[in-house]
Structure formats: C-alpha cells, structure tokens
C-alpha cells in the first residue's frame, strides 16, 4: 500500500487549486455566503473585499438575489427574499442609531445601496450587507428652518437615486421649487465628491404634475418618473439621463385608459421598465412591460386578477411576477397568464411603510474624500 506524503497534510487549498480557479468559483457563490467566506483566510478576505471583485460579482454572478426592503419601525428593518419555490426574511438594523430621533423613510435603492431619508433633513446611503453608511444634509432645500418635519418627498417635485457609470458616481437628483423666488431648481448630489451641484437642464413644464409620483426608478443609466394623472399616452414617462444630464420622454402604450381616476405607477421587472395600474372595469391590474428599452412596439400586456391594487415588485428566477396587494398580508406569485402559483403568507409585509426592491452587493461608494464607516 502506497504511503501518503506527509507534506499533503500541510497543503492548503491554494496549493491545490490555481488562483484563477478559486477566483472563478467565488464569483459563482451567492452574495449572502460571500460575507461569511471572508473569514476563511486572510487571502480570501482580501480577494472578496477587493472593489474589482465586488464589481465583477455584481455584474456576472448567476445567483443575484432580489429582496423587498422595508422599515417596520424606526429601529427595525427587514429584507424579504422571494424566489420560485422558497422565501425567507432577515432582520437588519438601520444605521445611525447612536442618538434619537430614529425616523427613516425609504426613498429607493441602486446597486446594493439603499437611500433613506432621516429626520431632520438628512439623506443616508446604506449598504445593509457590508454595514457601510454615509449621511449628507439637504437642509438647503427645505423652504424654511421652521418646517422641521419636512422630508425630501415634501420639498421636491421629483427625486431619484442612480449611478453614472461614466463618472463612477452615485447621484441623488432632486427638483424643487423656491417659494420665495417662485423659481424651480434642479440639483444633483454627487456621493463621490460629497456635494450638491446645481444643474442647468431644462425642467419639464408643469413640474407639479409629478409631485404625486415624485420617487423615480433607476434603469439603463437614467431615472424614470410617471405623472400622477395621464391624459395622453404620448410623452407619459419622464427620464433623466445621468450621464448627459438631460430630460427626455418615453411614450406609454397607446391602449392606456383616459379616465380621470387613472393613477399609473412604474416598476422594474427583469431589467425592463413596466407601467401598471388597476382597471376598475375588468377588476384586473394591467402591467405593461417594455421588452426593449425605448422601443414603443415592445410594450407587452400582462393582467393580474385583483379586486384592489396589485403592486408588482420583481420577477423570480423563472420570470414569474412577484408582488403584493394593498391591505393584504403576504406576497403573491403569478405566471404570465395571470394564474396564481404561490402565496407566501408568513412573511413580514408592511402596509403603510415605504419600501424598495433591493439587490445585494459588496460594492463600495467611490469617493474623492476619505470616508469612515458609521
């Protein structure tokens, strides 16, 4: 019987597998497990913590996970993971809890970061997976210091959170009106330079029609809004290109209703822009998905049976529609034909709190200024 080499016991995985193979394997590990794998060795910790690795994993990992994030109360937040046959949830602690008040509102998410509004007049950008957070004031937008309870949603007609790949910078865009000068302003918060920038882009007129749907959605390098009431399908969706710093419009489907009680909303489903609304005549939620970005003829209709409003949140790995109903507990999964496939009843679900669909990542905020984790 052949004797084993005594040196085999001292060999590590790095002696057996080449670095390129280890790197390739880790890129395929689900993001939630990567955080724990950093404890395996100093080498693995260094590799997983590298910004280039985080960027590659975010773009190329086949196991990207969508979660519904919401705040149940000022000190408790949840990530609800939804997929084809399984669902789970995780409690996470919001940042900046060293002293009261802990008053948060969820404004959106982008590439693993969640944007929060914190009383009084602060924005907090937070990565729940890494724990990193950054706080920036927007007090100059508030109409007067006496309005201590004003939030960004109260002060602005439009706001949105996105990423400018050309500058490697995360941006918060806010359009607001000055009550004293009666002038509208467009400002952009650069998280890379930690500063607000006044933009000269021509604002849509009238700006106030977007106030009821002031929160924008980030897709394809631009932030998207839809007005509170649509009277014409043409020029229905407003977009702001973060690279060019310009506004433009996208037409909605021609078949949209013209009722005065028609209140559309936007969603991102499987990387595609979607417009949805409740149809009172058919008792269904109509979901129009733009299969090809900015291609008018690519709008495709899906219908979900509902006596009340259905809110689509994301697509599962098998491209089923996952969402929830207003004032109904749990999350629901439908196929393209509108058939109910599954009801996740036992998951946390907030009726009145703001929420966002969140994709986990290990990404860091780029910065020209040295930031410390809060």
From TrEMBL:
Pfam families: F-box, FBA_1. Residues 17-57 form the F-box domain. It comes from the Eukaryota. This is F-box domain-containing protein. It comes from Arachis hypogaea. The lineage of its organism: Eukaryota, Viridiplantae, Streptophyta, Embryophyta, Tracheophyta.
């Amino acid at each position: 019987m052949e004797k084993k080499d005594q040196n085999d016991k001292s060999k590590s995985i790095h002696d057996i597998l080449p670095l390129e193979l280890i790197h390739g394997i880790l890129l395929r590990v689900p993001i939630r497990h990567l955080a724990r794998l950093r404890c395996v060795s100093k080498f693995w910790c260094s590799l997983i913590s590298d910004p280039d690795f985080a960027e590659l994993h975010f773009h190329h990992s086949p196991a990207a996970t969508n979660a519904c994030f919401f705040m149940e109360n000022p000190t408790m937040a949840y990530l609800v993971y939804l997929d084809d046959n399984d669902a789970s949830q995780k409690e996470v602690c919001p940042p900046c809890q060293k002293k009261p008040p802990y008053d948060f509102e969820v404004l959106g998410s982008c590439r693993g970061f969640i944007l929060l509004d914190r009383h009084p007049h602060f924005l907090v950008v937070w990565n729940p997976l890494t724990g990193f957070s950054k706080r920036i004031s927007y007090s100059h937008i508030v109409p007067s210091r006496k309005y201590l309870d004003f939030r960004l949603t109260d002060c602005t007609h439009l706001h949105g959170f996105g990423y400018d790949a050309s500058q490697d910078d995360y941006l918060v865009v806010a359009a607001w009106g000055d009550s004293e000068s009666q002038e509208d302003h467009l400002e952009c918060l650069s998280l890379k330079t930690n500063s607000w920038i006044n933009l000269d882009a021509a604002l849509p007129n009238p700006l106030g029609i977007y106030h009821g749907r002031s929160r924008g959605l980030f897709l394809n390098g631009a932030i998207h809004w839809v007005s509170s009431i649509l009277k014409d399908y043409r020029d229905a969706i407003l977009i702001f290109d973060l690279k060019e710093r310009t506004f433009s419009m996208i037409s909605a489907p021609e078949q949209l209703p013209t009722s005065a009680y028609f209140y559309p909303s936007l969603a991102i489903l499987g990387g595609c822009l979607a417009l949805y609304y409740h149809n009172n005549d058919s008792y269904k939620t109509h979901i129009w998905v733009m299969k090809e970005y900015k291609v008018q003829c690519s709008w495709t209709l899906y219908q979900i049976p509902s006596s009340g409003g259905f809110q689509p949140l994301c697509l599962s790995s098998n491209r089923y529609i996952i969402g929830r109903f207003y004032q109904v507990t749990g999350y629901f999964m439908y196929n393209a034909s509108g058939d109910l496939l599954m009801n996740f009843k036992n998951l946390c679900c907030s009726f009145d709190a703001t929420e966002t669909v969140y994709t986990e990542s290990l990404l860091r905020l780029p910065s020209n200024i040295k930031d410390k984790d809060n």
